[in-house]
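Quick start: what a row looks like.
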Amino acid sequence: MSNVSYHISNLLEKMTSTDKDFRFMATNDLMLELQKDSIKLDEDSERKVVSMLLKLLEDKNGEVQNLAVKCLAPLVVKVKEPQVEMMVDMLCSNMMSDKEQLRDISSMGLKTVIGELPLSSPVCLCVLFRLSGALVSFHSSLLSSLLPQLTSPRMAVRKRSILALGHLVPCSSPALFSQLTEHLMAELSKGPSTSMSRTYVQCLATISRQGGHRVGEHLEKLIPMVVKFTSVEDDELREYCFQAFEAFIRRCPKEMSPHITTVTQLCLKFMTFDPNYNYDDDEEEDSMDLEDRLDEESDDEYSDDDDMSWKVRRSSIKCLEALIHTRRDMLLSFYSSISPALLARFKEREENVRADVFAAFSTLLRQTRVGTSHHGLISAPSDHHGNQGEEPTVVMLKKQVPVIVKALHRQLKEKSVKSRLGCLCLLTELTHTVPGALEEHIPALIPGIIFSLTDKSSSSTIRIDALSFLHVLLLSHPPQAFQPHMQVLLPPVVACMEDSFYKITSEALLVTQQLVRVMRPLEPTTTTGGGFDPKPFVKQVFSPTLKRLKATDIDQEVKERAISCMGHMVCHLGDHLGAELQGVLTVFLDRMKNEITRLTAVQTVAMVTASPLKIDLSSILPEVLSVLGSFLRKNQRTLKLSSLACLSALLSHYGSCIKPAALEAVLTELPALVDETDMHVSQVSMTLLTCVAKASPSSLAKISSSVLPGVFRLIHSPLLQGGALVAILDFLQALVLSKSTNCGYSQLLKCLTEPFHRPLSAPDCAAVHRQSYQSVARCVAALSSVCPKETPSTVSSLIQEVKSPASPESARVLALLCLGEVGRSGSLGASKEVQGVILEAFTSTSEEVKTAASCALGSMAVGGLNDYLPFLLKEISAQPRRQYLLLHSLKEVISACPSSSLSPHMESIWALLFQNCQCQEEGTRNLVAECLGKLTLVNPAQLLPRLQQQLKASSPLARSTVVTAVKFTIVDHPAPVDALLKDCIGDFLITLQDEDINVRRVALVMFNSAAHNKPVLIHGLLGRVLPHLYRETQIRKDLIREVEMGPFKHTVDDGLDVRKAAFECMYTLLDSCLDGLDVLQFLDHVEEGLKDHYDIRMLTFLMLARLASLCPAAVLQRLERLVEPLRATCTTKVKAGSVKQEFEKQEELRRSAMRAVAALLAVPEVERSPSMADFANQIRTNADMASIYQSVQGGEPGGGLGPAESMDLS
């Protein structure tokens, strides 16, 4: 730091020199220093540099002044806020100076500073507020002055006027904007000269781009005028017409809907407009030598300097691209209309236009990919090789693949680098969109790829793109497709590996890695029918890779990829490397000891360890174990996890070769890693301990006393679940079976259950979390399953524990859950005693005991369906008071049992559930609905139509149960019910129009579940469903009533739950079905929600923040109406005498509203809204609001708009 300060001080001293050259050179050196990422200035240096540069703005030498302005850009991001404020204040003051030159240079400086600052920064907002309203009073006179300039005889003046009008439009009033638009329309309707028509149409395009949605209301009159001018024989005018269409489409997609067909037809007509060239002749000469053909094309291309038709073609293609980008809902029609036309234009002779054709088609592919990722896939009941379950757009695209390849493969060999880059980018997009679709065409594509890799005139960019495309191709297609071409593919890739430019080398190593996989695939699905011999190619790949692996003076990315590439080589071809193998392994060991490459080396060793070739690692094994053990102490979490995974692989595959002494360095580090603070590290550590127990039991005995306490703490932790719990179960089973430690079955059982037997009055007794009961019960069952001889005595003791009145409640609850988990494995049999114990537990006064008995009965029935299910069904019918608990048991049975086991009992369960679907108790009805839904999944073809029939039930309770049941048939993974559900879900959604409010509420909940888990089910129905959804967001006064509570009156809104459900659906649709929404209509209802109840406002604030990110253009259209509700929330204060909860709720509302404001301020062009600028100024000048704004911007944890704000909608 001191060196930097000293150097800066020297430069500042030179800047005061009387010699202008000294000042210039010192300023230039300062700029170079400031552009370095590593430079950090102390506070004093910051102040001195800022003061000096502001002083240099007044320098007598113009070059020094300009250089000082350039220095401000890198400086502004290096200094703290007070210095930025000082800069801005001084620049603003200088702009008011009497000296013209100082005003000019200061305005340039201010523009530079503002350009570098993020919009949300306080300084930027301050500048915005100070300047935003300054010119408002002059807008009208500015417009009056600029409009006559559009008719100036000088073209430069006209263009500058158009530019000025473009800048005026965003901040002008609606009346002024209408005046400008009507003036242009009036002038165009007079039939002006071609030159004037160009100016007016160009001006229209500019104000549309800048004014956005406001031009939408004038489109009905504008479109016919612009369409008329496309028939005028003037290429520039036509170009401006299509630029205007493009601006209309991008800025007013909704208002353009009625005109889409007209504009599309014009684009398709003029994208082929090339009056000076005959493409038919070119097609007749297809047999001509490629080089000759290209030369002839080239001669024709530049034969006419006055030919401007290419501008018309380019602008029409750009217009089509805008259409594809903004109207994803029309993708299917684009594939039948626009796609063939674009494919036909791949032969375009003008290089720049051809690049735009490729860009437009790439946009079509990207939109297709986005569309398919938005929709969950429906599993097809049959024909896995057909097109069932695929998006129709993907099906149509696959049909066009041969035409695409035919049009592109020849262009991959063209001299034009730009064309080849366009081809490669397009093919890469195609491979991402439809993986595997190019398999038949690989022979046609490979010559073009090789040409780009070997052509001496090729730039580094084209080679990197060619390698990148080849890598994507190799990843997404089966190895057999490339094996016949290995002889021609390998040499150019290897040559690229030895290139001097590190990015080419890096990409080539990635490709080589995949080519190694192609030579000898290890995947079971690809080994059959191979017969490819990799031996001739091994040396060709190995030598250059080894050279890169051993090099130390190369880029880190190349080092890492060389390690990974050689790892794949050893993994796939290790048996062909012979004596070279041990040298490679030694290099891997060296790379593990290097801090820069150790992570990649550890991951590579783990991969080699798992190779089916059984590579001999004995030469490096002891040292590898020692190094990996030392990594377990490191703070780098990724390294720790990779080391644990590598150790597990080594023990699994080479356990017999590892001596106990070699493991000591590893085992001493493990106890500290088994901790609830990082569950994933604990899980991987437990997996490693399991491997130790199986491979080296004697080693485990040494550390059991230090490891086991941590394991038991983890088991009793409320955080234990999922993979970590499964890893512990495996470890306990391996530990008991190893019989190497003093901890046998009974000792482990005692340690597991001991905390549950302590009396609550004990001084060191902490309450045991509910999750711990489940974890311990599963551990007990796991131990019993590997010690069957011990199971009868364990079951007896558990039964006695439940029966004993002296047992603490926690011990009885645990005993019941353990019985259930043991029973789940089928170890109980049809024990009358167990059934009696469960029934007795149902009569307990403790709710915890009754719930545990319910879970236990369900688990036992899963393990012994024929023994326990009839008993369970009989009890549900006979014991209405225990029905809720027994239905919980039944739910567990239906959820956990396979369909084949449940089928014989399906009818009896179905009949019983429908007897209880009209129960008055909502909790019981919901349980019945969940059971019905999950039972439907057993035989959807038979049971789903029955649910459909029940929609006609007269009882609203029965209808609500049926609709809720459908919700439970919608799972987040492909299932056989999906195809059937897609056909009939529309009937279930008709209940959104039900007369009963509760039925409508559960219908909304079901719709929300479908939108969240399987949006493809409801995507096609949005047009019918959304009006009913939006209707439920309205406040209904007939559902609001007053309830008297003593001397007070309390308002109750019976429609609140339905409205909340509707807004939750809207929030979900933003993520899953955005392309099916009319965003402006959607925003109308969000706007209403901003004034609703607390819960709904919290939801709409989240939606607004999401919309600002997803649909900024639409949000800008509604901004004036959205600001006021946000302002009202942020400025509202709670009455002084209110309770604490009211203050907390209002504070949370304000914070949530401010998050939405922060998201809006991040939208480009938001500064053009006067009301938003005014509100932002209010926030800045109000200390309370400014504090909240700063905190949600990241001033405190969880303040930002991150994942923490997302809703749980599962």
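That is the whole record. Residues 351-374 form the longest helix (24 residues). The domain at 620-741 is CATH 1.25.10.10 (Leucine-rich Repeat Variant).
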